[in-house]
Write a structure and sequence with these properties.
There is one protein chain. By secondary structure, the protein is α+β, with helices and mostly antiparallel strands. The chain contains 5 helices and 12 strands. The N terminus is likely disordered.
Length: about 190
């Protein structure tokens, strides 16, 4: 009798199970940002690594390199083309952000309201709405295929939608500590704390 119930576990349960069973994660991603006026979408791709709680590395490789590193205390955003590094306290930068959904602790409901968002594209979707009004995001949708997170869709306060697709997902790989360390390169302007 239990199996039919398990087969239809909701996406909110899948999100909780994913977070409970995932300490570290490594994946490739492709990202597409669509403006509200429908102009040509901006596409980028790169790699992501997460070590929960609080550590994150989001590296855009194409078309323009950008690196976001969260070491648990600070979040560093490096834009090599501008030779600029922005740094913020992790709590402020991550709390109600989409990154918090993946890299944060399991206290999701503290910062987000979660609800089932149905099935589409062969994935079961969860919608997470930030409880703080200043997160910059209206809603985040996460798409699961079984226990694997395959997609995120972010609706920001400016009417843009960001579609992220994950592939080559590795759950709980050993990640070197250096993955989540960042030292601003010589000559870069450092803005923030």
């Amino acid at each position: 009798m239990l199996f039919p119930l398990l087969a239809h576990a909701g996406a909110v349960d899948q999100l909780h199970d994913f977070l409970k069973s995932t300490r570290t994660l490594k994946a490739d991603f492709s990202q597409m940002v669509i403006g509200k006026n429908g102009r040509k979408p901006q596409q980028s791709s790169g790699t992501v690594a997460i070590s929960r709680p609080g550590k994150l590395r989001w590296e855009i490789l194409k078309p323009y390199p950008q690196l976001v590193v969260g070491d648990g205390e600070k979040v560093w955003i490096h834009d090599p083309d501008l030779q600029q590094v922005t740094v913020r306290k992790a709590g402020q930068a991550i709390g109600g952000s989409p990154a918090a959904l993946l890299s944060g602790s399991n206290e999701l409901e503290k910062n987000f309201t979660l609800k089932e968002a149905g099935e589409a594209e062969g994935l079961a979707w969860v919608e997470a709405t930030p409880k703080a009004g200043d997160s910059g995001f209206e809603a985040v949708r996460l798409g699961f295929a079984g226990n694997d997170l395959k997609a995120m869709e972010l609706q920001d306060s400016f009417g843009q939608t960001t579609h992220i697709r994950f592939n080559k997902i590795e759950r709980n790989p050993a990640l070197p500590a250096s993955t989540f360390k960042f030292t601003p390169p010589a000559g870069a302007d450092v803005v923030g704390e």
